[in-house]
Design goal:
Layout: H1 3-33, H2 39-62, E1 74-75, H3 83-107, H4 110-131, E2 152-153
Antiparallel strand pairs: 1-2
Helix pairs in contact: 1-2, 1-3, 3-4
């Protein structure tokens, strides 16, 4: 395996890790604003993103790099004063996560590729549930809003 391939894999995993950090933060906001009937769904997504984040940290270390650290805070793409806005935020977070896992799928092979495809599928399914509808090609950036619309680090 060439060092260029390894660097590409590390970059893809680091991007996924940064997206998972943002998703964990974002779901903290979602959980505080979402209506009672959807709180279990938000908690499940939060737990899932925490588990994926931890898994990605191990993978990046296994590849010989230092895992990207979470930011202290993230800027949200829009105000989240209520449950409908929280559901929109959750859908955007999942879209972003699906997109970065699509990049991991392209950069990896074997079991790691299957794991990334599973993560992409899970994010796409959660996005559909939050949005109430699907998109034609989950994980393809040209089918969604730009990545800047997702939670980004607060500087």
């Amino acid at each position: 395996m060439s060092s260029g391939n390894t660097e590409r894999r590390i970059e893809a995993y680091q991007a996924a890790l940064r997206a998972e950090h943002a998703a964990v933060y974002g779901y903290g906001v979602v959980g505080g604003r979402i209506r009672e009937g959807r709180r279990d769904e938000a908690r499940s997504a939060y737990d899932g993103h925490r588990a994926r984040r931890d898994e990605l940290q191990r993978t990046v270390r296994d590849l010989g790099a230092a895992p990207a650290q979470a930011e202290a805070a993230y800027a949200l793409p829009f105000p989240v004063p209520d449950s409908p806005a929280a559901a929109r935020l959750a859908a955007q977070l999942e879209d972003r996560v699906a997109g970065v896992y699509a990049d991991v799928v392209r950069a990896t092979e074997g079991e790691r590729r299957r794991a990334a495809a599973d993560a992409l599928r899970e994010a796409a399914v959660r996005a559909v549930r939050w949005r109430g509808g699907s998109v034609a090609f989950p994980g393809l950036a040209e089918r969604h809003e730009p990545a800047s619309a997702a939670a980004t680090p607060q500087t």
